[in-house]
Amino acid sequence: MRLLPSLMATLSLVLLLSACSDSVETEQAIVTQPVFHEFQDAHLKFGRSVWLGTCRNCHAFGFGGAPEVDDPEAWMPRIEQGKQVLYEHAIKGFFGPDDAMMPARGGNDQLSDDEVRAAVDYMVALVQFNSQ
Ligand code: HEC
User: What is the rounded distance in angstroms from the CA atom of residue 70 to the CA atom of residue 97?
Assistant: First the structure.
């Protein structure tokens, strides 16, 4: 049975290779994850957790025409409207001039007004941080 050792060697090489490619994939997944800045402020920390749960789905990648958090130019005219307008549009929902729809509470009825406002505060702070 001279075959067995070489078979074992081949097998362990295959196992080794597949283990390697697994770890490479994991590393790539970590590297390509976008990082959304975490602020020390407690209110913004709270807003971030709301934002990650609901708002990120569209505002991280521009889904459905949503202004992206790393696109300050898309945000500046919106931020200039003032926080009260942004809160109202986020809570009640809003159709932009190009008919893109911001659904009321980002489509998550479970969110309170305060949670939506905190998420707006976080998103505005994040846009300003990203444009520095
Ligand atoms: C299903 C996708 C989607 C989700 C989820 C979503 N948004 Fe939006 N949002 C949009 C789109 C699209 C627009 C742009 C509408 C336009 O002006 O054309 C927008 C615009 C906005 C604006 C700018 C409004 C203005 O007056 O210009 C704010 C503020 C906002 N979203 C806050 C939020 C918050 C806070 C959440 C989470 C609670 C959230 N969004 C979740 C799609 C989404």
Answer: 21
